[in-house]
Amino acid sequence: MTKGKYPIKYWSYSSLVTYLRNPLTWHKRYVEGVYDIPATPASIIGRSAHTALQYFYGGTPKDAAIELGADYLRNVPDFEINFGKAKSLRAKKVKRKEMEAEYRQAIGFYLDKPPKHKVLGIEVKAFAPITGVPIPIKAISDLVVVSTLDPRAVDIIDHKFVDSYGSVETDNPLFMIQALFNYFTVLYEFKKPVRRFVVYECKKRRNKDGRPQLRKHVIDFAKHRKEFALFHRLVVEATEDIRTRKLFLPNPSDMFEGKDSLEIYRFDLNKK
User: What's the CA gap between 169 and 209, in Å, rounded?
Assistant: First the structure.
């Protein structure tokens, strides 16, 4: 890496978290642009549900939006999906049917009583400069809506389709980092105060005890000002680190991509 040069054009939430977790995987994906790890069925289902919500909040009738999400799922090629133990064509076909059924159940839960918003933007992709950082940040916000707390401000809405409710409380550092990426990009794009980051978690499997399938989590930015300084320092120092780093080592303890990062490292050794 040439001193004074930055290997990426911008930071995103996924890029920053990957760099902190596994530098070699980050280099392969975000510097070399190699995205060769198939997506899990759960992530494909989530993308399909996001597609349906994108159409629904854009004014498409509910049933039509659901079908457009299903079309997205069906059009994902087999090679982009990690089918796990399903290796044969027949097994993959069965798995796809299960995925579509799970998608339809999940999006049905959400759209049974969907949250209502005054929508200002859908799938808002935006960049923003950060003071003292030579490269911008980027984020995609599912929805930008008029804040129900302050009509002069906006709220950011994020959707997650999950197998079980996760830890997305305000003391979860990953949750806060994601929220701040969206905060700065929406602030820069809309030029309005950003009041809250609201996550709707939709559980894909029916709760046996009859509890609602949607769980709402809220970060009111006015109550979390101290996290802004931490976020700024993290982005500044990570940016300086990628400018000066010469070696990218694997992280075998990475529960998601540790094995893959070791294989990348092994391949580079063989090339030498």
Answer: 23
